[in-house]
Specification:
The chain is of the alpha+beta class and about 400 residues long. The protein has three domains: about 20-110, ATP-grasp fold, A domain (Dna Ligase, domain 1), CATH 3.30.1490; about 115-245, D-amino Acid Aminotransferase, Chain A, domain 1, CATH 3.30.470; about 255-400, Succinyl-CoA synthetase domains (Rossmann fold), CATH 3.40.50. About 35% of the residues lie in helices and about 25% in strands. The chain is built from 13 helices and 19 strands. The strands form five sheets. Strands 8, 9, 10, 11, 12 and 13 form a six-stranded antiparallel sheet that branches. A four-stranded antiparallel sheet has the order 1-7-2-4, with helices on one face. β8 (about 115-125) and β9 (about 130-135) form a beta hairpin. The relative contact order is 0.09.
């Protein structure tokens, strides 16, 4: 589950991470009032930031023609004007796709005088099975770009989860970032706070980009999380009622919301060949092989290792709700999964929906012979795939025809 920037900052503040003072607003008038309070407290510059679940907001374009979802303002009236041009408008960024996202809230916050921008993140390194803290002197830039062009500028520290983040690790990262004196001391506390946020929120990722050195009181430098992004592990949300309450359904695709109600992992894509697969790795491989043979996947859909007939039926309903779908590929490798359960679900769903689209099914593994027999005896027009590549070829050919 993703949350907004302002919510991510709330979680970070709980663990002692400094963030700019600000308020989230749903109307231009509320933004004006928030700005008046900020300027009244001594701020000389205020930023208005569109709150959507996508990056690249500052370089985005509203469908109204207004440029930029992040604006610096020097007066209350300027904040009011900019917020009015953002709220209720659709913002298109490199991460939203051409459809964009409707801006329902803006964050109005103090804009500190930034001396330097850094990068910081905590995530799970699946190669070693442990959390890793990543940092770079190249803040404000996509980390993928830094990794591709200047990988030597990224420092990584692997954390033993039994011991937690250690003070010496904080000093190592601070030194790599060129922080000295008081800033090194601040960095140790901030890094521990960011790591604790990751652990205690059951996050999959905490990213601060940029983490900034700013002018604090009396000109003393401070470390502040100027922007923040947190992704949370759906499987652990039952432990965090207060975080569950942060979910913004308006930022999620309707079909993805429906899929979550049936415990299905579904992500809509731009293609026309729907995929129904068990296992995330197999689902990704299925999408790749469809593209390899000239097709375009319409979705990522993982029914999991123990799907029921009802879940399979619900998955078909979700797939067929996408008007762009022109064919369906079911690719199942049964380990825990019983292939015949999948076959029964396919038959039931195809009959209920009066399926008229090409349907290619590849079954392999647990109880596969019974599953194939169920499909063969159904009387439905189902194309059988002998292998993963054979199934992909057949569905691409059927859709093209």
């Amino acid at each position: 589950m993703n949350i907004h920037e302002y919510q991510a900052k709330q979680l970070l503040q709980r663990h002692g991470v400094a963030v700019p003072e600000g308020e989230v607003c749903e109307t231009a008038e509320a933004a004006r009032e928030a700005a008046a309070r900020l300027f009244g407290s001594g701020q000389t510059l205020v930023v208005v930031k569109s709150q959507i679940h996508a990056g690249g907001r500052g370089k985005g374009t509203f469908k109204s023609g207004f440029q930029g979802g992040v604006k610096l303002c020097r007066s209350v009236e300027d904040v009011h004007e900019k917020a009015g041009k953002m709220l209720g408008q659709v913002l298109v960024t490199k991460q939203t796709g051409p459809e964009g996202r409707l801006v329902r809230k803006v964050l109005v916050a103090g804009a500190p005088d930034i001396r330097k921008e850094l990068y910081l993140a905590v995530l799970l390194d699946r190669a070693v099975g442990r959390p890793v803290v990543m940092a770079s002197t190249e803040g404000g830039v996509d980390i993928e770009e830094v990794a591709a062009k200047t990988p030597e500028k990224i420092v990584k520290v692997v954390v033993d989860p039994a011991l937690g983040f250690q003070p010496w690790q904080g000093r190592k990262i601070a030194a790599a970032l060129g922080l000295r004196g008081e800033l090194m001391s601040q960095a140790g506390k901030l890094l521990k706070g960011v790591y604790d946020t990751w652990v205690q929120s059951d996050a999959s990722m905490v990213e601060i980009n940029p983490l900034c050195i700013v002018d604090g009181p009396e000109g003393k430098p401070r470390l502040v999380a100027v922007d923040a992004k947190i992704g949370l592990d759906d499987n652990a949300l039952y432990r965090h009622a207060e975080i569950q309450a942060m979910r913004d359904l308006g930022e999620e695709a309707p079909l993805e919301i429906e899929a979550s109600r049936h415990s299905l992992n579904y992500i809509k894509l731009d293609g026309n060949i729907a995929c129904l697969v068990n296992g995330a790795g197999l689902a990704m491989a299925t999408m790749d092989i469809i593209q390899h043979f000239g097709g375009s996947p319409a979705n990522f859909l993982d029914v999991g290792g123990g799907a029921t007939r009802e879940q399979v039926s619900a998955a078909f309903g979700i797939i067929l709700s996408d008007p762009h779908v022109r064919g369906i590929l079911v690719n199942i490798f049964g380990g825990i999964m019983d292939c015949n359960v999948i076959a029964q679900g396919i038959v039931e769903a195809a009959r209920e929906t009066k399926l008229a689209l090409p349907l290619v099914v590849r079954l392999e593994g647990n109880n596969v012979e019974m599953g194939r027999r169920t499909l063969a005896e159904s009387g439905l027009t189902i194309i059988s795939g002998d292998s993963m590549s054979d199934a992909a070829r057949k569905v691409v050919k059927a859709v093209a025809a």
